[in-house]
Protein 1
Amino acid sequence: MNEQTAAPIILVTGKMMNHAIDRLEAHFRLLHIERADPALVTGDMRSMVKGVAANTVIDAAFIDALPQLQIIANFGVGYDKIDAEHAARKGVMVTNTPDVLTEEVADVAIGLLINTVRELPKAENWLRSGRWRAEGSYPLTRATLRGRSVGIFGLGRIGRAVARRLEAFGLPVSYHGRRRAEDVEYAYYPTLVALAEAVDTLICIAPGGAATRHAVDATVLRALGANGVIINMGRGSTVDEEALAAALREGTILAAGLDVFAEEPNVPEALLSSPNACLLPHVASASVHTRQGMAELMVDNLVAWFTRGTPLTPVAETAHLKSTGG
Ligand code: NAP
Ligand code: 8YV
């Protein structure tokens, strides 16, 4: 595939880091599109594009606009932006980037938890703005990690890495998912409300999509209680942001730490102005080390598909598909 004329054509959607582009260019011929909009698909794209390297939404209409498409390689482990069910129906493989970001994201989950509970960003601002010198020590934080009990919504690869860290912090862990995990001893709750009732700290690291949309709603927030802290690392869509802003405002819960939002990069004003929300711009995997690892796995999936007909990390919806070659 190094021979440029024989190399398959890959369409890169959205902005992709240079490391990914360099690795893609070593194996493929590339075309670029700003966003995956069927109206922007040219005749050349229609007739030649066999793979997509995706960093944008890829919906059914875009998949249909590329009749030669064989594979969509997503830059990221969460693939709620890709219509994987439609891809499966059309025989189009979808891959994601699991594992290579697990520990990094778990590190940031713990960092965000500590920042939220112990108010470290606000304390730093206190120092930088001269208030330490002018007014004295930063006020004692109302909250502490000590004595907390943590529930994890989505005990998958990242959820487990977070749980291992929490164990080292001496905090009890329990979880909710669609099924009990037989290989862990953490307490399992069959509903999210039951989990929220049992803990005072909820860490969400479940995938986005229809099945989890607004899973964290006003009822779950009430169940978490007045000492409650919620950390969302998964997807913004899993939390009802309006209900969350109201819960923060009214003291239904104590604080929230959010790395993800429903309409990124737009963050609701009610959260921006909330003094007890600690907000990050979706940075959990955003180190050079980890983003390069993700880029490599994304490209390796494309290379494996076009050289041997099976990708390294297919998503569940398309794992059964076989390459027909060509
Ligand atoms: P994973 O290993 O597939 O874990 C997902 C977990 O969620 C599984 O334990 C699954 O358990 C549970 N789950 C799935 N659907 C559910 C549902 N409808 N209700 C309740 N639980 C459900 O994935 P991962 O590698 O840990 O990544 C998890 C998510 O983190 C990604 O999908 C992505 O959205 C997010 N993420 C965010 C960042 C960031 O930068 N903030 C970075 C990486 C990943 P069951 O199958 O037993 O239900
Ligand atoms: C990335 C992520 O920020 O992997 C995921 O699911 O949310 C993050 O690692 C994102 O995919 C890159 O755009």
Note: The chain has a mean pLDDT of 97.
Protein 2
Amino acid sequence: MRCLKKKMSQVFSLTQRYKRTLQAMAAGVFLIYMTLVLYQNVYGYSGSGGDGTNGGQDLQYGSTDSAAATVQNVIAKRDYSVNSVNGHVIKSVSAKVAAPTRFDKAYYDYQNGQLSVTGTPKPPTTELDDVLISVKTTKGYHDTRLEMIIKTWYQLAKEQTWFFTDTDDQHYQKLTNGHMVNTNCSQGHFRKALCCKMGKEFEFFLDSAKRWWCHFDDDNYVNVPRLVRLLDEYSPTQDWYLGKPSISSPLEIFLDNTKTSSGANKKVTFWFATGGAGFCISRALALKMLPIASSGKFVAIGDKIRFPDDVTMGFIIEHILNVPLTVVDAFHSHLEPMEFIRPETFHDQVSFSYARMKNEWNVVKVDGFDLKTDPKRIYSLHCYLYPFFSICPKTTKRR
Ligand code: UDP
Ligand code: MN
């Protein structure tokens, strides 16, 4: 009997001990959980481990050896993956397919009333109308480049897109419902003229009430719904400079009028987004640029560094304002081979381009119109993406 009692008390105390251990563990788990909840509330959600602002993450450009080749690259809130620019491996924002925006739905509903919208992780907060798209063009390209834009992607962003040119053109003014801006900048592909137009685009954005400014060249095809989805990943109230470099290491320039202690010209190093691929700037960042770059000052900075408009933009943002370029691989200029963009990914790309290189076209490889009708492949690309457009052959299958 005594033995049984002893056994019983042993079992009892054992149960008590387990109970206490379990209680302690539960309290520990609860404490960790509460800490996490509190942390998330204070700092917000950041997939990159950054803080959701521009203080994100240091990324190394592979196969470079100097300290200057390290760039502070900010990663989008949700995910990132390894990609490459000119063969150099970088970590950057991936061309992630997001759920369709309200704009996509409106467009498809308008076209045929059938395509349904799939589930979305969060309701989109950025709409097409939050964006100002500026396209740089020139008198000589109205017929050869602008016409194609107006027949294709412009139709998806008629109210939001403006063309910055160097002449009055009644024909295109009518076609665009007054969206041709004569910048009074000189014609010609030289720095001053190009910087002059870029400065006008910037000031036009500042005068608007838009949350985002996206610049493109007139040889870009802009995938409008994808552009809106991209911007929806970022906040216009934070500093964002989104685009893609066309060089594999940061640009190094020497400033004439700034000397080091030894009397040499000061070297500065920065990244810039290639203008020919397009880039986007948030309103918050544009407001920081205002005192430096508005009222004609953009041209003055271009003159000072003696580099083209897109380089000047990078100099102002990365060097002067210390806001890093966020690399978005979904922008494409004709400095990259277009044929390597796979058709299955067309919907994920923000921009495309084309160029004639000697006797060959650097163009997107896509089925569609014959090469004679559409040597630049832009109409074919547009019909691949949006087959229900009236310019597209009736037989084109939906993708
Ligand atoms: N451009 C311009 N004035 C010119 C030539 C070109 O404003 O005299 C614009 C053109 O419309 C385009 C951009 O500059 O948006 C780049 O021109 P292009 O594609 O001809 O040359 P790239 O710099 O791409 O080689
Ligand atoms: Mn070009």
Note: The CA atoms of residues 42 and 51 lie 10 Å apart.
